[in-house]
Predict the 3D structure of the following.
Amino acid sequence: MSTAILLFAHGARDPEWARPIEKLADAIRALRHGVTVQPCFLEFMSPDLASAIDTVIAAGASRVEVVPVFLAAGGHVKRDLPQMLDAARARHPGATIVLAGVLGEAETVIAAMAAHVVGLAA
């Protein structure tokens, strides 16, 4: 089973905004050799989620893991994202498309952010 990880972020008009998302993708690629890792965006940037899903499945992915790169689950994650994933599942009934937890709500991420903030004051 070929797996693709899509890092789903909000997007912005400033192209520099995506730099940390690209760095995260590079770090994941270094840890998960052979797994496709692709940033995608809700708005302003491309690819959008639907295009990214279509592309990785066309390239052979049978499992797509969508990771919301948000600090917390707001309206986009709670309402918009499930609808987008339902539409993708309808387009690709043979693929497994799963939604991971919001990155910023993971205990390990919270611990890393806290350690960083504490380190600033040291």
